[in-house]
Amino acid sequence: MILAPILCFGGIPTSTALNHQRKSYQPLSYNRVSNQKSEACECFDLHKEIVPYRKAWSWQKQIVKEKKELIQRNGDCPDTLIVLQHHPVYTMGTGSSEEYLNFDIKEAPFDVYRTERGGEVTYHGPGQLIMYPIINLRNHKMDLHWYLRALEEVVIRVLSSTFSIKASRVEGLTGVWVGDQKLAAMGIRVSQWITYHGLALNVTTDLTPFNWIVPCGLRNHKVGSIKGLLEEFWLSNRCDEADMHHLDDCELIDISHKSLIKEFSEVFQLEVHQKTMQMSDFRIENC
After folding, report:
1. What highest taxon heads this organism's lineage (predicted)?
2. Cα(81)–Cα(135) distance, rounded to whole angstroms?
3. pLDDT digit string (tens) for 189-248?
4. Cα 255 → chain centroid
5. Is 8 part of the annotated catalytic residue set?
6. Which of 29, 124, 30, 115 is nearest to 84 (CA)?
7. Within the chain, what is the greatest distance between any pair of CA atoms?
8. Chain-centre distance of CA 1, in angstroms?
9. What is the C-alpha to C-alpha distance for residues 86 and 33, in angstroms, rounded to an integer?
10. Closest CA to 168 of 150, 148, 146, 153
């Protein structure tokens, strides 16, 4: 079981690197608009699945289109949350520069997609939890800065409540950091106040592919993962080697995804309802 090392992890002294703060953390205040008709959020939970990026990207755009049509007819629509993993892929934002690719794009190690989200190049792959909120900001707060800070808040709460890891924001940058390691990246698109794309949290991710890019266009910055931080803690505290074998990747993904959905529902004050889908729409591989 992984719960034992998580409880052990809560005893980290404040002087360790894992508790280093780039910016003092203040809980995000949230005020839902008073005319909100529904607090429901449908959740497509595919956290154990590895979904091709192009399929998930097309799916998001289809949901956005449907929500716009619903709003035109009825004036409202339920929010949607998608949680999944991707096959190895690099994605670039609308204005991303190829100077941040450490390879010839014609000979890329993985597929490269230029999308309509904001931000620079990043990597997605197995072991990284992707959360795509497709929500109507008219029912939350029509403020993109606030929305990005809310996504960061979700991850900060996950790391704190589930793993006792004290994470922080960095002034002027988007994402969530633990010391000098960036654990979560955000890139969004908003169309008629409907959001899509979202956040990526490194849980058990193989970080090697990040070496072939300049992640998010930030040179001289490290990328980290939850598993990597747990292993660093165990090694530095000389935990029993047998305990380290309890760090099962799929179990760690499962625990992290449950916490992500819980904290998302609390930050955005939504009642999340699981919704099924036809798996035949995707060529899916198990975790």
Report:
1. Eukaryota
2. 8
3. 999 999 999 999 999 999 999 999 999 999 988 999 999 999 988 887 766 655 555 668
4. 14
5. no
6. 124
7. 61
8. 24
9. 34
10. 153
CATH 3.30.930.10 fits 38-273, yes or no: yes
Q: Model confidence over 253-279: pLDDT tens digits?
A: 999 999 999 999 999 999 999 998 755
Residue 198 C-beta-side C-alpha neighbours within 13 Å: 29
226-236 vs 249-267: helix crossing angle, rounded to 10: 120
| Per-domain boundaries in the chain | 38-273
- Contact predicate 216/119, CB 8 Å: yes
Place of tokens 């449907």: 66
| The total number of residues written for the chain in this structure | 287
Q: Which of 8, 77, 216, 239 is catalytic?
A: 216
Whole-structure pTM value: 0.87
Q: How far apart are CA 216 and CA 228, in angstroms?
A: 20
Q: Which amino acid is at 179?
A: G
